Amino acid sequence: MNLELLAKYGPRMLEGLVVTLELVAISVAIGALLALPVALARLSPRRWLNGIAFGYVYFFRGTPLLAQTYLVYYGSGQFRHFFDALGLWWFFREAFLCCLLTFTLNTAAYQAEILRGAIRAIAHGQREAAMSLGLNPYQVFIKVILPQALIIALRPLGNEIILMIKGSAVAAIVTVFDLMGATRLAYARSFDITVYLWAAVLYLIVVETLRRLWNRLELRMTRHMAIAGYRT
């Protein structure tokens, strides 16, 4: 281990790690807010609404995150006059904000499909039983269907966050100095491949920490199932 190299570039890489965590946390949180309406649109009997939601999900799940990032960051420059007229160019000229928008739209598509599958996994008898108690459809969904669906979706959502953490490395391609961006800079100046090993270790630490926290959350959320004997 080159301690001199670590002392020189280690702090910069840790700053990049903070940027990575900010980027992922904000995009996943906003994406979660978008995911539920999209999932409901995918389940809607209205064909036009279902079609719009399907097109959105199909595009963002079917194309690489890198290509989406390029389209937003570099493509927005082709419409600078339009965004200037709307007063939005300040947003699209910032690489971090373009990545934030792209990651949000991408993870919202994945989270929407996870929620859609979880909602459909709830037995129809649950709805019938709730409605027999006098609950209206809104109350049935909020108090009966959604809580159970979130438990089913918990593990896949955790996997999606982990994938976003690793996928966020593409932000470095558009000059965002996240963990990978700081690592590329360190390598460009030192030509020491060890810096990429340090980056890999930092990603591994973050992912393992999240995995352990998510396991604890899942155990807490499903403790009633363990008492009832449903969880192995």
As an assembly, this protein is single chain
Low-confidence sequence ranges: none
CATH architectural name? Orthogonal Bundle
Structural class: mainly alpha
Helix content: over 70%
CATH topology: MetI-like fold
CATH class: Mainly Alpha
Strand content: under 5%
Give the distance, in angstroms, between the N- and C-terminal Cα atoms: 44 Å
Number of domains: 1
Number of strands: 0
The major β-sheet equals: none
Radius of gyration: 21 Å
Q: Could you spell the SSE succession in H and E letters?
A: HHHHHHHHHHH
Mean pLDDT: 90
Count of alpha/pi helices? 11
Shape designation: flat
For CATH, the homologous superfamily is named as MetI-like
Describe this structure in words.
The structure is a single chain. This protein has a single domain (3-228), classed as MetI-like fold, CATH 1.10.3720. The longest helix has 41 residues, at 3-43. 28% of the residues are buried. By secondary structure, it is an all-alpha fold. The protein is built from eleven helices and no strands. It is flat. Helix content is 82%, strand content 0%.
Short description:
The N and C termini lie far apart (44 Å). The protein has 232 residues and is mainly α. 82% of the residues lie in helices and 0% in strands.
